[in-house]
Amino acid sequence: MAEPSEKEKNGVVDEGIDVGVSRLTEEKIQEVINHVIDAETGARLKTYVDTCIHCGLCSEACHYYLSHDNDPEYSPVGKVKQTIWEMLKKKGRVGPEFIRRAAIIAHTQCNLCKRCAQYCPFGIDIAYLMLVVRRIIHKLGVTPLYIQDTAHSHSVTMNQMWVKGDEWPDTLQWQEEEAQAEIPDLRIPLEKEGADIMYSVIAPEPKFQAQLIYQTAVIMNVAGINWTMPASVGWDNSDMAMYTGDNEIMGRVKRAHFETAERLKVKKIVMGECGHAFRSVYDMGNRWLGWAMPPFTIVHAIEFYYDLIKEGRIKIKKKFEPPVTLHDPCNVVRGGGLHEKSRYVANALCETLIEMIPNREHNYCCCAGGGVINTGPPFKMTRIEGNKVKAEQLFGAKAKGAEVLIAPCHNCHSGLHDIIHHYEIGLDIKFFGDIIYEVMEKPE
Amino acid sequence: MYIFYDFVSGPLTWIAFLLFFGGCLYRIVSMLILVNKKEKFIFSYMSWRYSLRSIAHWIIPFATVNWRLHPILTVVTFAFHICLLVTPIFLLSHVILWDEAFSISWWTLPDGLADVMTVIVILGAIYFLVRRLTQAEVKYVTSASDYIILAIVAAPFVTGFLAYHQWFAYPLMMCLHVLAGNIMIAAIPFTRLSHMILSPFTRAYMGSEFGGIRHARDW
Fold first, then answer.
1. Helical H segments across A69-162, by residue range
2. CATH no., domain A158-310
3. Predicted ipTM of the assembly
C-alpha cells in the first residue's frame, strides 16, 4: 500500500466520494435514504434505534475510540449519531456534506468487527447499522473509489482483482511447476469432478501472493488430499461488494462460488486464510441468497489445518522456534468461533505461544477489515492512527517475548503489517500456512 | 386538592395502566409483525438456549467483560434498576391500595427498607445525570429526551420520598406523586424507556446469533 497522497494532506479525501457528492441533490438524497429505510429495513433498525438508551457503554469496545484518546466521535454510538440517527430524525432531509461525512464514517471509521455488540448491554448490532449506511452510500454513488473499483471487478470478472480468464489457470500452472521442483509428482488438480474438497482463495493470492497457492499445493499433496480448484469463475471466495452495500453483486459472486462447488460435485469447500471471505460465504452472502446456513460445508483454513494435524495427515518435523503471538481475526473468531482451534494449531506448530491481551473473541480488530483497507491509500493513515491501541497490544505481546505474529486472515495480515511498520513494533508476521510449510515433514 | 387526588388516583391511574399494558402489548406485537413481514429470517436464527444464556449473563452483575470494566456503573445500574422495579410493587402503601380497590394483596417491604431503596433510585438517577453531563462519550450522544426520561423516572421517587416523610405540603406532594407515577407507567412503552420491554428481544437475538452461528461469547 502506498503512502497517503498529497491530496489527503490537502483535504481532498477520495475521488469516489468527492465526485459522488458533487452529483448529489437534496431530493435524490432524501429519496434514496427513505427508500432504503422503507423498503430494505425493518424491525431490527427500528428496535435498535428505539431501544438504545444512549449510555455510551459501547465506546470502549471500539479500537478507533480507544486509539483517539476516547474521542466520542469515534465511539460506536457516536458514529451512529452522526449517520443513521440524523437520517431517521430528519426523514432523509440531509445535505451532500452530511453524506460525505457519513461515507467517511461508515467506510473508513468502522471495520464492522462487531466487538461493540459484545459490549452493548442490549446487544444492539451497530455493525448492521453501519452496513445500512453503506447501502445508502452505495445507492447514492458515493462509495470510496478504491473499494468501488474492487466491486466493479467482482461485477465484471467475478473476482476482486481484475484477474482475467486465462491468468487464473496460468498462475496455477506456474505455481504447480514451481512446486514440482520440490515435489516432482505434485499436481494442482483443476476441474476434478467428485473431488473431496474444492479449494478457493481470494483474488489477491493469484494476483500478488502466488506463493500462498504454492504452499497450499504442497500441504494438500503431502497430506494426500483429494482436492481440486475450479478453472472457471467461482474460484474467488472474496467479496468486497458485501462491504460496499452492493448486495446484488455480493449475491451474484456468492452464487457463482457455491454453484461452482456444486458443478464439481465436491463434498466441501476449503478456503484460504481469509476472514471477510469466510463472512461472505458463512454469514452474509448465503443469507442474501436465502440460505440460513451455507449450502456447502465451509471449512476455513484454520479448521482445515486443525483437522489435518489432529488426524495426523501432516506431521511436524520440528516445531517453529521463535515465540509467536496469535491475532484472532473478527470474522472467523467473533464470527465463526475458531479461536480454540486456532490455538490448537498454533501450539501444534510452534514451541511457544504468547497470548496478546485481550484475545479470542475480545481481541482488538486489525482495523483493515470490513473493507477499510480496500478504501486504499487515501485512508491508509485513518486505519493506522485509528489503531494505536492495537500497536500497544502488540507491544505488550512483544514485551513478553513474542517475535512472530500469526494473523490467519489476509486483511488482518496486511493491516497489521502496516501497523507493525508504522509503530516500529518489530514483529515478523506470518500466516499459519507459512509456518506449516516451514515445519512440516515433506518427502525428501 | 381532594378532587384532584381523586382524579389522578382514579381515572388517570386507569388510563396510565391501560396505556402501559396496551402500549407494551402493542410495541411487542407490532415489532413481531414487522419481523414477520420484512425480516422473517430472524425467527430461523432464534434459539431459546442461546437467548437465555445471553440474557442471563447480562442480568447478573459483573458476569460480562463490560460490567467488569465499569464496576461503579455496574453496582449503580443494578441497584437502581432493581430498586426501581421492586420498590413500587412491594411498597406497603401501594399494596394497601390494591387491597382496598381489588381485595388482592401480597408480601410487602418493611417501610424502612423501602425508604432506603427509594433513596437508592434517586441517587442512581443523580449518578446517571452527572454521568450524562460529565462523561464525554455519554454527553456526545445525549439529547433532551434523555434528560426527560430520566426526570420521568426520578419524579415518582422524589415525590414519593417527600410525601412519605411529610416534610412539607403533604397533600400536594401526594397528588404529584400519583401523577408522576402515572406518567412514568404510561411513558414506558412510548419512550426509550421501552428498553424495559424491548431489550430482552435485542439481547436474545444477538445471543442467538453469537451462540448458534458465531460460536462466540457475546458477553
1. 76-80, 86-89, 96-108, 126-140, 145-157
2. 3.40.50
3. 0.95
